[in-house]
Design a protein that fits this description.
With about 260 residues, this protein is α+β, with helices and mostly antiparallel strands. It has one domain. It contains five helices and nine strands; from the N terminus they run ααββββαβββββαα. The strands form two sheets. Strands 3-4-5-6-1-9-7 form a seven-stranded mixed sheet. Strand 5 and strand 6 form a beta hairpin. The structure holds a DNA duplex (14 and 14 nucleotides).
Length: about 260
Amino acid sequence: MEDTALASELERLQAMARELGARVHDEGAPAPARELCGALAASVDRAVRLAAGSNGGNAGRGKSNGHPRNSCRKTAKVRRQVRVASVQDTGPLDDGLSWRKYGQKEILGARYPRAYFRCTHRHTRGCQATKQVQRATDDPLLFDVVYHAAHTCDQAPTAEPSLLLSPERQLPASGQEELGWPAATEAQTIRWPIEPVTPFSFPSSPAGAFDGCYLPASSGYGYAATHGFVVDDMEYQPQLDDFFFNPSELFQSEIQSL
DNA sequence: GCGATTTGACCCGT
DNA sequence: ACGGGTCAAATCGC
């Protein structure tokens, strides 16, 4: 998406978030709903700032470690990069897929370490899917999630990208056509452990944990976060539109889960 | 006991 | 030599 279009969409989202907040407040919605709206507004504001910083095509991406991604020797394998915003600093990451953490490294110039995950079924089914998750230096509530390869095991992402805010910018034209990505898009939902000692300790989750709902009905982590996405992939646009035009439905499901 | 996580060591590309 | 990615033993939790 071009930057101007992105900015336009974000402005619309921002306006709707404010409108929603006003309505929720006026109609005496439950406190959790009002808090959620506030969190949404904060997340949108961050997204707008990021988009503003993306003029010239670098919306915070690649800034996390101070090095352009092209400098990474494995850049060619990068399939999708997703910048994820967590409104509240609670709850672990969960995308409905089964990931197993196999490493974590301090990255030069980055405040937070990078965590490495691979598919739980790597050995049993030979699934080569991996992802890297790193908290953004410039905004601790944002996460850069980089997916490598695609899941070749049977599991499919069950979490729909219900809160994709906006494509951040396009990936370099590095052969997405050969990815074999599942038809269902992947999404990240942030649930943080409260003030984690190590920034990345995302318990893997069994497929089906979300049951198609953007938030599970309950969680031992105490759901708090509304989750924003800033995605580097145009495939998310239809879901973006859904969110833009049906935000109330989304929040209804969230409120019910509280 | 089994599977997941942690973390230091090792490997590899630049 | 350095930095990023992965391995694998130790540890933890259910």
